[in-house]
Amino acid sequence: MSPALITVKLKGKHLSSSNLLSLKEQLESATAVVLGPGLGLHSETKEATKEILEQLEKTRTPLLLDADGLKAFAEFKRKLDCPLVLTPHTREYEILTGNALSNNLEEKAQEVQKMARKLGATILLKGPVDVVSNGVAVKFNFTGNPGMTVGGTGDVLSGVVGGLLAMGADSFSAAIAGAFINGAAGDFVAVEKGHHILPTDLLEWIPHVMDDPMCHLEVRLNQF
Questions:
Q1: Is the pLDDT of residue 220 over 90?
Q2: Alpha carbon distance 4, 8 (integer Å)
Q3: Which of 116, 117, 146, 177 has the fewest other C-beta atoms within 10 Å?
Q4: What are the residues whose beta carbons fall under 8 Å from the beta carbon of 67, sequence distance 6 or more?
Q5: Would the pTM count as exceeding 0.70?
Q6: Separation between Cα atoms, residue 219 and residue 214, nearest integer Å
């Protein structure tokens, strides 16, 4: 799909336990893993997901679960012995936990905090206002706009948070910073072209948001 991506060729039409030997070296050497986007929900894939998580626990490798990875995790969810970030939107959260979310932001935050504590994870609940909790503290992120409800922007968010985890950030800090950076990039795209945003548009702005403190100030001012 992109000449910039480095891929590992796997046999079969979808991820299964038979692929894990081919992934062993990558999983053992990884400084962080993002699992879920585009994964699929085949029964063999869900079993492979469980085995990958068990392998990552052995090395305590930071892990981010999104999309289909969250849905697979929902079937055997438990505290993992590795740093864990979960990035559901509202429907994925309800599938993951079995709990409906209130429209009230404070009540929503309390629910996310309670579940994060139960799972020993950081949860980044995506929405008009992102709610991030590690089970102790709660943070809200107000960057982002309705144009980002297109498919793929959540995958970019997962990549940003995963990259920060790989750089050594703790789960909570990575989730907070990733939510801000991804949303701020989307806000700058919206200023440029309106709410006709593609996920790839965010990639152009992410480095600027991360490197330029004035970007942070401008985005904050635009919130008021």
A1: no
A2: 13
A3: 146
A4: 36, 37, 38, 39, 92, 154, 155, 158
A5: yes
A6: 9
pLDDT tens by residue, 179-208: 999 999 999 999 999 988 999 999 999 999
- CA-nearest of 24, 81, 31, 29 to 52 is 24
Q: Tokens for 85? A: 């970030």
22-49 burial, b for 16+ CB within 10 Å, e for fewer?
Answer: ebeeeeeebebbbbbbebeebeebbbbb
Q: What total number of domains does the chain contain?
A: 1
- Per residue, what are the HEC states of 89-136? CHHHHHHHHCCCCCCCHHHHHHHHHHHHHHHCCEEEECCCCEEEECCC
For residue 212, the model assigns a pLDDT of: 77
Q: Compute CA 48 distance to the chain's CA centroid, rounded to the nearest angstrom.
A: 19
| 83 belongs to a structural domain | yes
Tell me the β-bridge partners of 131: 125, 140
Sign of torsion over alpha carbons 109, 36, 26, 43:
positive
Q: Which among 113, 137, 127 is positioned nearest to 157, based on CA atoms?
A: 127
CATH code of the domain containing 111: 3.40.1190.20
Structural domain that includes position 158:
17-222
Per-residue model confidence (pLDDT) at position 224:
35
